[in-house]
């Protein structure tokens, strides 16, 4: 050992006992008081200054200052109230900045309980920080209060640190008892030692040692501080309402988060009993996340404001919540915290995300968490469950994160070991989805890239029943309290709408390949979107998403395969004979075939009260939120056509509002108008200038092979990036964001997120058709980003569509994007100075034209 690698504690006697400190040592003092730790830190600091060593004090606690202000000491004040990740990341950054051979003194770690309420997270911080200090050849002092932490926390600290020392005050005498001294040993090292002046006198006699330790209280194994708090809170249920409210609010800060509009709503509707019930179903510690909060809050609002109206109509939930601290514990205990910290930097945000995503898919969970997982799975038995993301930022006012993170179905079949492994892997998949490109872009675009995005998880029993080998709900979908997408001037926007499917709701939240969800206006559920009568089958749902007990996975099946099953209710509620298709089949010579069905839900709307109930629920939730809302739900019916609704999710509908009436100028020449029509737009009443139009001709796009269509999508992404800040209208055939290139351009939302207007147009000849995707994740992104959306159905009356008016202008693609010449036949960019788009939500009219040419004088 090089003498220059040895460092003094400032107490000569203690140096002799432990053979000095070494560069790289982390030193943890177990003490009964901060003042005892302060004495040891003072010895260390004075000696470090005498030896001209750099000294840094990390100040974060509310207790007395450990080291006094001095020009020889650099003091960093770090805010622990911002949460574990911000705190740990900031300390990582300052340690990196300070570099090698620095002496550190930290405040007492136990004080972090005031901010994090969890022994688990203190252990995580220590495990995340100390290895880095060791690598930089530092010496760092820490302290924890004795008999205050769990055995597992102490065990984790003992495993990680190089020195663990007990310090006692007994009869006005100071004793130090080394418990761990890494890579050093002497016959008397681990005896207790009496500190006199600067000497350390070894207590070797059994009588003296016995007398010493009989005066020292040895605490029993403690619960995590988190559990201690909630156990104490249970006793408050017998106290006054005022005391209950005060306790409830403290617990809400631990489970729900900081003060916000959602927090205030929870404070208004949830009781202390509700909060304790939530805590009793939490695995680990920490926040339960936005999705869980939204679901619980919505149910409570309906219970209180609806009085007895919805009690018998709502399916109860028995969800569990995996706390956000488990996410951090998973990262820290698998040794990935350094990688996580690098990924949170400006340079590393995208660079390190793929590596971290891969690691998140292959880690191990701590044994105590595994045991809680087992107990949860034993509770659910073999019922199918869904593991859903519930991050801290999800489903709040301003940021929905709709569809950005994964949800994973566990059909839950097989041996207990098989079911457990599938469940663990589902959690890993959700955790790894925090590093998905869409999620990274979403956070970056909203200025959230460096905020804590703590991933909690909501575990729900899948709503539905077994039908043959399959498990699914009768209906599922999304609902919105405000219907911003209207196609008929008689539509009452305030009545809300549904996007409804048969089977699992995955087809309601995604733009599914070749399939269409049922769009339901709740003021008149039988009203259908604009389409020819013979097209009703074409633009309806043909496939169902189901859970297969046989295959033990989520599967898709044709409707024809499900029709023969006993649905345990009247199947005609959901489907009607498709006489048009049957007649067509007879014309082709298929005379013996059974009449096919079409999913139109007509009898569901006429023979049950489900649409009126959904309308009332949405109105009540919107009133309580004082904001439009967006929900996810399922419903199941029995033989008597009675239904139960399962409210799975509720969040603020991220919309800028309906706007005021806009006076739309009349045109002098329809042929020179770019487009005009009634209904089929989203974004309220607007008047928007357009600087550029990016147009995709349907006929040339259709001629491309699949690889060519994907290449067009990627080029649109480059255009979207480069034209950010300009008023650009993107116009294309069929569905933007389709996963099937034959139905539209397969862009990701992040590849068109900077557009001012998105336009989808139909082309019957080419087979392209816009989708009224109101309520889908794609829609949520459009509305949340403030993009105006319009669909042009060229064959409909009152519709003007003159694409040649744009295409005859010079194509600026290659001049704006050199090297893009190969796309010039399929991407046309026109500069459109003077073009404006108008819409009026009252008259339902939208119109786009060059204002200076076509306004009547």
TrEMBL record:
<keyword id="KW-0418">Kinase</keyword>
<feature type="domain" description="Pyruvate phosphate dikinase AMP/ATP-binding">
    <location>
        <begin position="288"/>
        <end position="666"/>
    </location>
</feature>
<protein>
    <submittedName>
        <fullName>Pyruvate phosphate dikinase-like enzyme</fullName>
    </submittedName>
</protein>
<keyword id="KW-0808">Transferase</keyword>
<dbReference type="GO" id="GO:0016301">
    <property type="term" value="F:kinase activity"/>
</dbReference>
<dbReference type="InterPro" id="IPR013815">
    <property type="entry name" value="ATP_grasp_subdomain_1"/>
</dbReference>
<dbReference type="GO" id="GO:0005524">
    <property type="term" value="F:ATP binding"/>
</dbReference>
<keyword id="KW-0670">Pyruvate</keyword>
<dbReference type="Pfam" id="PF01326">
    <property type="entry name" value="PPDK_N"/>
</dbReference>
<dbReference type="InterPro" id="IPR002192">
    <property type="entry name" value="PPDK_AMP/ATP-bd"/>
</dbReference>
């Amino acid at each position: 050992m090089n003498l220059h690698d040895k460092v003094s504690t400032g107490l000569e006697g203690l140096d002799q006992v432990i053979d000095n400190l070494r560069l790289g040592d982390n030193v943890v003092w177990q003490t009964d008081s901060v003042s005892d730790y302060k004495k040891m830190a003072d010895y260390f600091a004075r000696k470090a200054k005498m030896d001209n060593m750099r000294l840094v004090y990390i100040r974060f606690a509310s207790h007395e200052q450990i080291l006094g202000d001095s020009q020889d000491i650099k003091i960093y004040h770090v805010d622990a109230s911002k949460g574990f990740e911000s705190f740990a990341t900031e300390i990582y950054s300052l340690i990196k900045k300070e570099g090698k051979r620095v002496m550190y003194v930290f405040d007492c770690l136990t004080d972090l309980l005031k901010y994090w309420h969890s022994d688990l997270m203190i252990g995580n911080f220590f495990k995340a920080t100390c290895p880095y200090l060791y690598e930089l050849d530092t010496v760092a002092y820490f302290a924890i209060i004795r008999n205050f932490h769990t055995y597992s926390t102490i065990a984790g600290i003992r495993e990680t640190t190089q020195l663990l020392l007990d310090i006692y005050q007994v009869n006005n005498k100071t004793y130090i008892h080394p418990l761990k001294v890494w890579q050093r040993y002497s016959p008397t090292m681990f005896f207790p030692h009496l500190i006199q002046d600067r000497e350390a006198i070894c207590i070797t006699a059994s009588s003296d040692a016995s007398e010493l330790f009989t005066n020292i209280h040895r605490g029993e194994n403690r619960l995590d501080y988190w559990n201690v708090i909630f156990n104490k809170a249970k006793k408050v249920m017998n106290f006054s309402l005022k005391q209950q409210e005060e306790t409830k609010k403290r617990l809400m800060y631990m489970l729900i988060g900081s003060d916000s509009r959602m927090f205030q709503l929870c404070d208004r509707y949830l009781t202390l009993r509700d909060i304790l019930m939530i805590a009793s179903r939490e695995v680990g510690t920490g926040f339960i996340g936005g999705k869980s909060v939204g679901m619980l809050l919505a149910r409570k609002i309906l219970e209180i404001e609806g009085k007895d109206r919805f009690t018998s109509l709502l399916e109860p939930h028995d969800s569990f919540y995996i706390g956000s601290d488990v996410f951090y514990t998973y990262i820290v205990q698998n040794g990935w915290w350094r990688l996580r910290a690098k990924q949170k930097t400006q340079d590393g945000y995208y660079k390190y995300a793929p590596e971290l995503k891969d690691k998140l898919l292959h880690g191990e969970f701590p044994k105590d968490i595994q045991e809680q997982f087992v107990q949860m799975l034993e509770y659910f038995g073999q019922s199918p469950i869904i593991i859903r993301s519930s991050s801290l930022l999800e489903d709040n006012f301003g940021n929905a994160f709709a569809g950005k993170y994964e949800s994973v179905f566990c059909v839950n079949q097989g041996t207990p070991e098989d079911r457990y492994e599938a469940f663990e892997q589902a959690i890993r998949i959700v955790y790894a989805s925090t590093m998905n490109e869409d999620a990274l872009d979403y956070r970056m675009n909203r200025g959230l890239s460096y905020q804590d995005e703590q991933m909690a998880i909501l575990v729900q029993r899948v709503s539905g029943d077994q039908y043959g080998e399959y498990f699914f709900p009768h209906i599922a979908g999304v609902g919105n309290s405000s219907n911003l997408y209207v196609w008929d001037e008689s539509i009452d926007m305030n009545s809300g709408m549904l996007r409804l499917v048969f089977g699992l709701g995955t087809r309601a939240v995604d733009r599914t390949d070749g399939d269409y969800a049922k769009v339901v206006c709740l003021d008149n559920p039988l009203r259908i979107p604009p389409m020819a009568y013979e097209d009703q089958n074409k633009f309806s749902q043909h496939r169902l998403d189901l859970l297969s007990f046989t295959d033990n996975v989520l599967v898709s099946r044709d409707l024809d395969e499900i029709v023969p099953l006993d649905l345990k209710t009247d199947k005609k509620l959901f489907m009607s004979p498709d006489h048009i298709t049957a007649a067509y089949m007879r014309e082709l010579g298929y005379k013996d075939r059974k009449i096919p069905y079409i999913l139109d839900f007509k009898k569901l709307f006429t023979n049950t009260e489900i649409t009126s109930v959904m309308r009332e629920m949405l109105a009540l939730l919107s009133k309580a939120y004082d904001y439009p809302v967006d929900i996810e739900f399922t419903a199941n019916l029995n033989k008597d056509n009675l239904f139960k609704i399962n409210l799975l999710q509720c969040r603020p509908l991220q919309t800028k509002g309906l706007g005021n009436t806009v006076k739309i100028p009349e045109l002098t020449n329809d042929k020179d108008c770019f487009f005009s029509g009634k209904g089929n737009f989203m974004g309220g009443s607007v008047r928007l200038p357009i600087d550029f139009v990016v147009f995709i001709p349907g006929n040339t796009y259709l001629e491309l092979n699949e690889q060519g269509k994907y290449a067009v999508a990627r080029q649109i992404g480059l255009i979207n990036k480069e034209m950010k800040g300009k008023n650009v209208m993107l116009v294309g055939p069929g569905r933007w964001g389709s996963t099937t290139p034959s139905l539209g351009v397969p862009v990701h939302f992040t590849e068109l997120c900077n557009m001012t207007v998105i336009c989808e147009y139909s082309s019957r000849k080419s087979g392209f058709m816009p989708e009224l995707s109101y309520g889908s994740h794609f829609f949520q992104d459009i509305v949340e980003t403030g993009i105006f959306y319009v669909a042009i159905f060229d064959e409909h009356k009152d519709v003007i569509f003159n694409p040649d008016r744009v295409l005859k202008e010079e194509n600026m693609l290659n001049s704006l994007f050199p090297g893009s010449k190969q796309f010039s036949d399929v991407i046309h960019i026109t500069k459109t100075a003077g073009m404006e788009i108008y819409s009026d939500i009252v008259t339902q009219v939208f119109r786009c034209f060059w204002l200076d040419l076509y306004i009547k004088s």
